[in-house]
Amino acid sequence: MILAAGASSRMGRDKALLPWPPGSSEGTTLLSASILALRPFTDTVLVVAGNNAENLASLIDTHGAFMVRNPAPERGQFSSLHTGLYAALARGCHSAMLTPVDCPPLSAATLELLVRAFEKALLRGHWAVAPESNGRHGHPLLASRAWIDALLSAPLTSNAREVKHAHAQYFEYVPVPDLPLSTDMNTPEEYAALLAAPRLHGH
Question: Which pairing describes strands 141-143 and 96-100: parallel, antiparallel, or unpaired?
Fold first, then answer.
């Protein structure tokens, strides 16, 4: 599930439609790159959109994903998370791979590593795993049904970080080699800095 309902007010343009990866001449965007990255590891890719739904609909459909619309995205990202998770459960999904659209997708090898780690974590009675690199945590977060239920039982005034802290004993971090978290992506300057990071090229 890709959360793409934000207003991107500080960026000045929809982050979902920013060109990605660096140097790409194929017209791919952060959203399309995320869909293509997650699709081999999931049964269904859901994109949660907001007031930008009409602008994203064609891209989502073209890349074989499905759109879920948050009717009130102004309530914040946690409301989009709730909207998407309820839609996932309605489709019969019992686990989920969750990421905001402004987190560039990891390589296929790293996503495979996360999936294997998630399967092992479930056997240990844990609920979720997420990648980390050099002390930084990132996405996607791989969530079991127990973790999904914990998120959905929290009020919309909460956030994923608070839920994670409340259930920290069920959460695992997996070291990965290619987590692009040295720069935030909220402004044009931060986006340009992330594009210029040499280690991202080729992903």
Answer: antiparallel
